[in-house]
Design a protein that fits this description.
By secondary structure, the protein is of the alpha/beta class. The chain has a single domain (28-137), classed as 3-Layer(aba) Sandwich (Hypothetical Protein Ychn, Chain: A), CATH 3.40.1260.10. It is 50% helix and 20% strand. The termini are far apart.
């Protein structure tokens, strides 16, 4: 009777503990950075590269939201192309804040199509945090 009871406990622990452990091991690590300065993209890309190496298969999404007056600089397509290339190289998605674009009079057509535009970058950042993204604002 004792062996049957112990065997049942071991079986139950194995059944219920394994899916949890497997899920934890395969959970994606997602990141979002909100920045107000274009030159900060260089260290952000290096950070994405390092995290991808550390996280390996668990590395998920890495998004950079550009907000504030610096959105004016997004219209300089020649300057931005090097950042776009680096973003692709490091699997980083570039996002522009629509609220900032409106506030500083930037026409969305003047921004490279590689930038995804969200209506409110701060709200979007908070929504990603609610989904479990690790976040930092610079």
């Amino acid at each position: 009777m004792k062996k049957y009871f112990l065997s049942s406990i071991v079986l139950l622990l194995t059944l219920f503990a394994s899916p949890v452990n497997a899920q934890e091991q395969h959970e994606q690590e997602n990141y979002v950075v909100l920045t107000k300065k274009i030159p900060q993209l260089e260290p952000i890309f290096l950070t994405a590269e390092t995290l991808a190496e550390e996280d390996k298969k668990n590395f998920g999404k890495f998004e950079v939201i550009i907000c504030g007056q610096t959105v004016k600089e997004l219209t300089d397509k020649d300057r931005m192309q090097k950042y776009i290339n680096k973003a692709k190289e490091h699997n980083v998605e570039l996002v522009a804040c629509g609220f900032s674009l409106n506030k500083f009079g930037v026409d969305r057509k003047d921004i490279s199509p590689e930038f995804r535009i969200v209506e409110n970058g701060i709200l979007y950042n908070l929504q990603l945090q609610k989904k479990g993204y690790t976040s930092i604002s610079l």
